[in-house]
Design goal:
Layout lengths: L16 H18 L24 H22 L4 H24 L17 H16 L5 H20 L21 H9 L18 H18 L5 H22 L12 H24 L15 H7 L2 H16 L8 H12 L3 H25 L7
Helix pairs in contact: 1-2, 1-9, 1-10, 1-11, 1-13, 2-4, 2-7, 3-4, 4-7, 5-7, 7-9, 8-9, 10-13, 11-13, 12-13
């Protein structure tokens, strides 16, 4: 005869709806920005040309910060289900590899221009950087305590500044002595990318916005999310958590703005001042989302896991990588259709460019179109509660 035991089971950590909603908003904005066409884009949907920051420049750091928060939430959930840290480490490595390969697919689809020697393949990219950041932060999350994570974040940010400030750049000299610290071609990040790859492999030929060395401070951004996630899981009231996030956000914004005078905020180089400034912006937005969605429970009925108010953003937020992949592959897929002018999407853009007088508005309408098509493609997964994970 089998009898039930009273052994207590670990409680599964509750899911934070605010994180899914904010992730959905971030992915929607990423798709909107990446789908812009032509040389004139709509206002703040344009990255800063070099030094400086626009609203668009905060989007990728926001995504990486949420990756860090999600690492904490997912790790706790798996440990609660009985997974070992060794098992989690293997899963983290596997997922990072798959995510990196997804990035390569995005860069090469529809595989018609690869050539026999892969001479024009871009190995860097958004998903590749995300994979490297996830790998580093995911493995680090398995170590006990928060101090080593905080120390690593500081090392990434300060260490990157030291490299960019004091290491001589071959052919240019020491930064701030004959060459600007953020010189577009005469910085250490750009030089290293050119030393590794031929110009045809780099997004901007002489440098790449997702280059190898600048992944180091991007890991720092993701670690800010990890530390925020650890704080959100602390045994504190939600008011205390929100208040602390707000103060931390304010301090980071002020520190990043102050550092800007010596090491200018620059998204394409992911400068240390950029890490602090955009990290503060992201934490502030996270605090606001938690306050209204998890704290005040605005638009949430008791027991409702997927409130209708947030459904449009949850479609993207619960299948973020899938949505991003579809949005990036949609151009190549459209070009494969039997349609003149290189596919229906290009034909639609041609019509907009020719008939909408405000060029920036034409680009905005087109990017909204791509975002809506992507949303419609992902919605059936959300409706059936299918959440694809890497």
């Amino acid at each position: 005869m089998v009898t039930a035991t009273s052994t207590p089971q670990p409680q599964k950590p509750s899911r934070m709806l605010s994180v899914d909603v904010l992730r959905g908003l971030t992915i929607a904005f990423m798709i909107l920005v990446n789908s812009q066409q032509g040389y004139r884009v709509f206002g703040q949907l344009h990255h800063s040309d070099w030094n400086g920051v626009t609203l668009t420049d905060v989007v990728f750091p926001m995504f990486l910060l949420l990756v860090g928060v999600s690492v904490v939430l997912s790790t706790e959930a798996r440990l609660a289900r009985g997974a070992t840290k060794r098992t989690l480490a293997v899963q983290i490595v596997r997922r990072a590899v798959v995510l990196f390969l997804f990035g390569m697919i995005v860069n090469t689809f529809p595989f018609t221009d690869l050539g026999p020697h892969l001479s024009h393949v871009r190995y860097y990219g958004v998903l590749q950087r995300t994979a490297l950041c996830y790998l580093a932060v995911g493995l680090l999350s398995l170590l006990p305590g928060w101090k080593i994570k905080a120390a690593t974040a500081i090392a990434c940010v300060v260490g990157y500044w030291a490299l960019m400030r004091f290491v001589p750049v071959p052919g240019y000299g020491v930064p701030t002595h004959g060459v600007a610290i953020n010189d577009p071609d005469g910085n250490l990040t750009a030089w290293l990318d050119r030393a590794i790859f031929a110009p045809s492999h780099l997004y901007e030929k002489t440098h790449d916005p997702e280059g190898l060395l600048s992944t180091l401070p991007a890991i720092g951004t993701t670690l800010l999310g990890l530390l925020a996630g650890l704080w959100l899981r602390a045994n504190r009231s939600i008011e205390e958590k929100i208040r602390a996030l707000g103060w931390a956000a304010t301090a980071l914004i002020l520190a990043g703005w102050a550092w800007n005078a010596e090491f200018p905020i620059n998204k394409k180089l992911w400068t240390s001042s950029y890490v602090l400034f955009t990290g503060g912006d992201s934490l502030l937005l996270l605090a606001v989302a938690i306050y209204f969605i998890d704290g005040k429970r605005i638009g949430r009925k008791q027991g409702a896991e997927h409130p209708a108010l947030y459904m449009p953003l949850l479609v993207f937020g619960t299948n973020a990588i899938t949505a991003y992949m579809i949005s990036e592959l949609i151009f190549g897929a459209s070009a494969l259709l039997p349609w003149p002018d290189d596919g229906p999407l290009r034909a639609w853009w041609g019509w907009l460019a020719a008939n909408v007088q405000a060029y920036g508005m034409a680009s905005l309408i087109f990017s909204i179109t791509v975002t809506l098509i992507t949303w419609l493609a992902v919605y059936p997964l959300y409706r059936k509660r299918i959440f694809l994970r890497v």
